[in-house]
Amino acid sequence: MNQKFQLKGLQGFMFGKIKFYEKKSNDVSIEFENGRASVDIITPSIINFFSPLYTERRASKAVENLKRMPGKITVDFIDGQVLVYTEKLKVSITDNFMVDIFDLNGKRICSDYRGEDKPFVRRGNDDDGNIAAEEGHQLEEERKSQKIKILKQLNPGSYFYGLGDRTGHLNKLGYHYKMWNTDNPNPHVESFETMYKSIPFFVALEKKTAYGIFFDNSYETVFDFGKENSNYYSFSAVDGNLDYYFIYGPSAKEVIFGYTLLTGTTPLPQLWTLGYQQSRWSYAPEKRLQEIANNFRKKDIPCDVLYLDIDYMDGYRVFTWDQQKFPNHEKMLDRLKGQGYKIVTIIDPGVKKDKGYSIYDQGLKNNYFATDRDGIPYVNRVWPGKALYPDFSNQAVRHWWAENQKILVNHGVAGVWNDMNEPASFDGPLPDDVQFNNDGRLTDHREIHNVYGHYMSKATYEGIKTATNKRPFVITRASYAGTQKYATVWTGDNQSLWEHLRMSLPMLMNLGISGFAFCGTDVGGFGFDCTPELLSRWVQVGAFTALFRNHSSASMRDQEPWAFDEKTESINRKYIKLRYRLLPYFYDIMHDEETTGLPMIRPLLLDYQNDENVYGINDEFMSGSNILVAPVVEQGKTARMVYLPKGNRWIDYWTKAVFDGGQYIVKNAPLDVCPIYVKEGGIIPMYPAQNYVGEKKISQLTLDIYPFTGKGESCYEHYQDDGESFDYRSGSYNLYDFILKRSGNLIEINISKTREAYGEKYQSFKFIINGIKPLEFLVDGQTGKIENDDDQFSFTVSNTAKKIDLKF
Ligand code: MIG
């Protein structure tokens, strides 16, 4: 079929009239004059719209082991509409496969656009007002190349989020993006249409109601949020099927939950992966790495992870070690382990073309590399020179690659960093017709490009899992929807620019909305030279990102916490230590996230969807649901405006001053102060700072309590396990519930252990009660012992305590 399926509602055009429909168990199939389609009910809130336009089979790379829970479905045919009712939605399908979705009160949520697609005209400077011929041609080419295009009605007051880590701002209204994984070495700017990742999923928010659309198509796709025309938004693809999911909220949190139900959540990581990580292109030879390792300990700056970038390899041959620079890597890894370090090594996909190099020989012998149309392995050039591309879309290749992970992890490597897997290539892009196995359904580069990094991460994850039986730590640069199940991501080669610090916030928030809960940027910036002030501000943001890694490029000035001056070093120490004290809080978020999909860095709209003032805020975020962070991301600023959302009061983390929500305040923020606010009623679990995770045996949990200033009640659930194995999946963990209540001058805290199945329990709980000095203090009815009642009232109770009463 070569016809262009543009769903724009011209009478009789494209799909044509409905001829026939049939209800099956979970789906309704509809035959139109010119094509067929299905409407598949995944849950009462998630509906898949599908038509096998160009390929017969459905071939999702993102949705694995889909569990359907459709609930009760009824189907009707009235006035030329197929009407599908779920327990949450009413879906109307009319001629030409026009879709309208309503809630059960009849409120319209999302509708196909009925007019023609009509992009704005780009006027230039020639006599006819046309743009230069070449650019006009390019635009036309893009339009022509899109074979499938869906237009949806765009209403005033709409906001769009998601699409992974696109540059620019949080709200994507008015912008146009392309999904084609790209390694562009230029400084990332707002006008970039592509990045390293392709996550074809977005959340739309209109009048306090949110829904999401996941366009599951791995070919090049384009998303236009009212840029080409303010009456509609669109998504389109160059090939593949019409295959998209509508995910109803009405809260954005429910949309993320639904999206991660389809594509998966990030599994709970090992606790140390949430510690501070130091990287550099490259720490080599061994002496330099050791110097860095010693410096952290000497300078009393916590650090868990050190990275080995490409120079640890022998001539950039993956899965080898340079014997000159690292003559005895096993011994070295052992020694660093003794100092509490975990070492992560980089692995690129490109395999050096080099007879006698075992990885190359094995790959060649078994036909594991992508080929040209004649079946000859395709060669391009990357770091090792001429190199071949393992065909990760082939199960057998993934298996081989998974096995190769043993070469690293059996020698003590703790995690693997996958880079260059867009895939990048130095001698021009891979041609469209490079052949891939695609798990037996042969295809070409156009379909695999965007999932190449996804499959590489999957193989890496599975290999490490089998080899270690611990939760794998994999970092990848390229991703597709669903990669979050296998890897953490970073936003690639940013630069030491204030604009990149500023932009990292919306990028990370949108990644979080797109299912990537475990993400971060290169703290301090990768390219260009960092400054003391920039690193000081960046580490304040890094302390709250899931992946907290300082990384910089070869030949850039040093960027370790101590690389500048004492003040910068002490600011680094302060925020890295704060990070370590907050580890149980962050770990709780990641544990929660495994079920809810809710990320660590959240745009304010997730928790405050009723407050429209927050919909476009780029420079503040929620860290979990108790902490709001409003970092300074501009050079020279020592104060900033902070918007505190409506719905509760807020307590300044540093001064303990209380503020009403729903207002802008001005916060003084000298270089060592990152504005942080705790939600009233907030309970924050804390550990003591340590040099690395596991250094100290944690027998006491601290609870930093921010009591309500009026009547109120809150609950915090804390999770505890061994921090590394999969035993928690068979039940080996503890859960503690802390309930905080205030009425009048009484505060009551209830502690309950709702699950005790993991052996190492806390011996005691230390409470810090901020902002209150009690007159009377009882632990299970007995007068308690006060530890400190200066500015912070604190006390410790044994792990058997159940109820604390404070009268003031
Ligand atoms: O072409 O391995 O984004 O983090 O340090 C550059 C060297 C290759 C790009 C990665 C960067 C890494 C660098 N890599």
Automatic annotation (TrEMBL):
Cross-referenced Gene3D superfamilies: Glycosidases (3.20.20.80), glycosyl hydrolase (family 31) (2.60.40.1760), Golgi alpha-mannosidase II (2.60.40.1180)
GO MF terms here are: carbohydrate binding; hydrolase activity, hydrolyzing O-glycosyl compounds
Keywords, sorted A to Z:
Glycosidase, Hydrolase
Q: Which GO terms describe its biological process?
A: carbohydrate metabolic process
Q: Name one Pfam family in it.
A: Gal_mutarotas_2
Q: Where is the Glycosyl hydrolase family 31 C-terminal domain?
A: 597-684
Q: Where is the Glycoside hydrolase family 31 N-terminal domain?
A: 37-224
The source's superkingdom equals Bacteria
PROSITE patterns, alphabetically?
GLYCOSYL_HYDROL_F31_1
Query: Domain Glycoside hydrolase family 31 TIM barrel spans what residues?
Result: 266-588
Q: Where does the DUF5110 domain start and stop, copy by copy?
A: 700-771
Family, as annotated: Belongs to the glycosyl hydrolase 31 family.
Q: What is this protein called?
A: Alpha-glucosidase
Q: Which organism is it from?
A: Oenococcus oeni ATCC BAA-1163
